[in-house]
Amino acid sequence: MRAPLLLSLIGYLAAPTGSAIMGRCEIAKILSDGGLNYFEGYSLQNWVCLAYFESKFNPTAVYENAKGGYMGYGLFQIRDTNWCDHGKNLCRVSCSALLNPNLKDTIKCAKTIVKGKQGMGAWPTWSRNCQLSDTLDRWLDGCKL
């Protein structure tokens, strides 16, 4: 009688607890703590906007772009062709490390990317959705940083 109850309890505890999607303010805090606020001149609002449009705040997101021939990893959908170990590995990081919700490797790699000649323009979604936005401040509304 106890075994079925114990197995049910173990099954319940081992079940996934939901998605990896993080809150906007939580993302803002982690990115700020990671030194991205005004890194290379880009405000924290730009980084939070980018995270939303790239992954909807999901640090474990993986996207395959079959037409473009690349995979995007993590919060900023960092492309494997140049930045992680499936390609040129200019960030000197494994692609799977870019899926860690602590975001340390993601932030380090994002800094490497934004130091390049394109800056945040290396992300076409930033250019389309964040670069010319006059509402960037909304990305930090209500966040206590």
Descriptors:
145 residues, mainly alpha, Lysozyme, 3-stranded antiparallel beta sheet
Description:
Helix content is 36%, strand content 7%. The chain has 145 residues and is mainly alpha-helical. The protein has one domain: Lysozyme (Orthogonal Bundle), CATH 1.10.530. It has a 3-stranded antiparallel sheet with strand order 1-2-3. A hairpin with a 4-residue loop joins β2 and β3. The termini are far apart. The N terminus is likely disordered.
Quickly describe the structure.
The protein has 145 residues and is mainly alpha-helical. The chain contains five helices and three strands, in the order αααβββαα.
The number of distinct helices, counting runs of at least 4 residues, comes to 5
General shape? globular
Beta-strand content estimate: 5-15%
Give the strand tally. Answer: 3
> Roughly how many Å apart are the termini?
51 Å
The main sheet orders its strands as 1-2-3
- Give the integer mean of the pLDDT values: 89
Give Rg in angstroms: 18 Å
The secondary-structure class comes to mainly alpha
SSE arrangement, N to C: HHHEEEHH
Share of helix, binned: 25-40%
State the low-pLDDT regions, or none: 1-18
List the topology elements.
Layout: H1 2-14, H2 24-33, H3 44-55, E1 62-65, E2 70-73, E3 78-79, H4 104-114, H5 124-129
Antiparallel strand pairs: 1-2, 2-3
Helix pairs in contact: 2-3
